[in-house]
Amino acid sequence: MTSSSRDNGTEKTHFGFQDVPVSEKAGLVRGVFDSVAENYDLMNDLMSAGVHRLWKTAMMDWLGPRPGQHLLDVAGGTGDIAFRFLDRVKGDGKVTVLDINHAMLSVGQDRALDQGRFEGLQWVNGDAMKLPLEDKSVDAYTIAFGIRNVTDIPVALKEARRVLKPGGRFMCLEFSEVTAPGLKEFYDFYSFNILPTIGGVVARDKESYQYLVESIRKFPTADRFKEMIIEAGLGQVKYRRLSGGIAAIHSAWRI
Question: Which superfamily does CATH assign the domain made up of 4-180+209-253 to?
Answer without folding.
Answer: Vaccinia Virus protein VP39 (3.40.50.150)
